[in-house]
Specification:
Radius of gyration: 21 Å
Number of helices: 23
Strand content: 5-15%
Distance between the termini: 58 Å
CATH topology of the domain at 301-417: Rossmann fold
CATH architecture of the domain at 301-417: 3-Layer(aba) Sandwich
Structural class: alpha/beta
CATH class of the domain at 301-417: Alpha Beta
Length: 425
């Protein structure tokens, strides 16, 4: 069957976009799963509606600017994919479409929007710069209304205090007999916002006989650039990690859902380049740390602290939807004696973080975040656990607005704290 979209007009990404559009039968099953459809109630703010818009744009039947507001509102949470009976690969459409739009400057941006996007792109993926930017945010908050409105979301989301930096060892030996050897993606924003997540991850792995290598030359996964349409930057980050990560490891582990999802899309990011085959081979070794541990099994089972701990689990979108990882984190947490694991209502709905979405669409992000925080607080849990730094940051911010005492922890931190000699902070 011939595609009505002339895929060749859009370079290497044209064919995946055309296939995704063709796969949609417009059944509407995606509507109930889509957070922005719930927020706005408009067809064009649903996956089905956006697919129609993108199809019309790619067929030159609709101006790019007409589709832009609705494409910008898409979280990229991919909740539509598991809800779709036709298996539409929405991820093969939304990010490539944004890449084409940004490369050809088809989406008009105000000078303020361009500045905000430039600042985010030049700081968040680089830990040293990001740490400096967060320090500067204190001055920005002091200036108050003098700060341009378009930059205020960045100041509002910046934490009041930033943890001290942690230098991770290049290699951490397994404790006891070595069962596996892995490489860990340290991430970028996570190293600044909550470096203890990597510390906890390495400790849990080492306790269970896993040698952990942290390649020094690695960088940002490229997810932030990819999801905002900056294909050139995404490719640069992907190539850096292709060169940095060794081939002689059992797995390449991620502990941030967005990073893992991005690395699984390296073959798409580098499609049509000389690096596509290497990227495809590398992504097959990438897995979330919870999946790796669930498959490996405990050698040293967490013991808990002798009391009941009520934990609510929040599914990060790019873990549950993009990577299909739902059972493994829950399975690991349930092995902790005394831990009672609770579920959130409307768990499939995004918390609103979604990379830089809470900078670009602050009102929608805040609404979704507030709903998620209220759902967490209503469970009566002492701790909410998740597997993505963006979700954790969003939950902390929104729970603080409710004056909620619920602690926000990464799954690996909860597991680490359940071993002897560790206490929850």
């Amino acid at each position: 069957m011939q595609h009505s979209i002339k895929a060749e007009n859009y370079g290497p990404l044209g064919e995946p976009m055309a296939r995704a559009v063709q796969a949609c039968v417009h059944c509407g099953f995606c509507l109930a799963a889509c957070p922005t459809y719930q927020e706005f109630g408009q067809e064009m703010d649903s996956p089905r509606g956006r697919i129609v818009l993108m199809k019309q744009v790619l067929e030159n039947e609709l101006p790019w600017a007409a589709a832009q507001p609705h494409i910008d509102r898409c979280l990229g949470c991919l909740a539509c994919e598991p809800a779709c009976p036709s298996g539409v690969p929405y991820r093969d459409l939304i990010s490539p479409f944004r890449a084409v739009a940004e490369a050809e400057k088809n989406f008009p941006r105000t000078p303020g929007e361009k500045l905000r996007r430039w600042l985010a792109a030049k700081t968040i993926p680089f830990p040293a710069r990001f740490r400096l930017a967060l320090a500067g945010a204190k001055l920005g908050r002091a200036l108050g209304p003098l700060v341009p409105r378009v930059l205020r979301p960045m100041l509002e989301l910046a934490p009041a205090a930033v943890p001290a930096s942690v230098r991770l060892p290049a290699a951490t030996p397994a404790r006891g007999e070595r069962r596996a050897r892995v490489a860990l993606l340290a991430g970028c924003a996570q190293q600044v916002l909550d470096p203890d997540i990597n510390v906890a991850t390495i400790e849990v792995l080492a306790r269970n006989g896993v040698e952990v290598v942290v390649p020094e030359s690695q960088g940002c996964c490229g997810g932030l650039a990819w999801h905002t349409g900056d294909l050139a930057a995404a490719r640069e980050f992907a190539r850096r990690n292709l060169a940095a990560f060794p081939a002689d490891v059992d797995a390449i582990l991620t502990n941030a859902a967005g990073c893992g999802s991005a690395m699984h899309e390296y073959h798409l990011i580098l499609r049509g380049t000389a690096d596509e085959a290497r990227a495809d081979a590398m992504r097959k070794k990438v897995m979330d740390v919870s999946v790796f541990l669930a498959r490996l099994g405990w050698r040293e089972t967490p013991r808990g602290n002798g009391r009941t701990l009520r934990v609510a689990y929040h599914d990060a979108c790019h873990l549950a939807n993009a990577q299909g990882v739902r059972d493994e984190p829950r399975k690991l947490l349930r092995t902790i004696p005394g831990l009672e694991l609770g579920e959130l209502p409307n768990a499939h709905l995004c918390c609103g973080s979604a990379g830089t979405y809470n900078l670009d669409q602050p009102e929608t992000a805040a609404s979704l975040g507030a709903q998620k925080a209220k759902a967490v607080a209503a469970t009566g849990a002492e701790v909410v656990a998740s597997g993505n730094i963006g979700c954790l940051t969003q939950l902390r911010s929104q729970l603080a607005k409710l004056n909620s005492p619920v602690q926000v922890r990464h799954t690996m931190q909860v597991l680490r704290d359940a071993y002897p000699g560790n206490t929850s902070s």
